[in-house]
Design brief:
Organism: Sphingomonas caseinilyticus
InterPro entries: YgaP-like_TM (IPR021309)
Shape: elongated
Helix content: 40-55%
Domain Inner membrane protein YgaP-like transmembrane: 1-65
Strand content: under 5%
Pfam families: YgaP-like_TM
Order of helices and strands: HHH
Transmembrane segments: 12-29, 35-55
Distance between the termini: 26 Å
Length: 83
Amino acid sequence: MVKNVGSADRVARLCFAALLGFLAMTNFVEGWGEIISYAVAVYLALTAIVGRCLIYRMLDVNTCDHGGTYHSGEDPFDGRGGD
């Protein structure tokens, strides 16, 4: 599976995961909110580390720069490319 989470997105995910984890640990969020905060924080941290997001894959979103002019949804073999 190709990576679909770019470097800026990865940094943002890690920062947001750290914030959610901190809020849940300091009892700012309690009950179900705490459990959901931990779950979302773990998901965001894992997707930032691995570089792949299942939600992005379902929505056909790609924030990763693969170096080239190919964008998601385009046909790379349509004859308009270079060599």
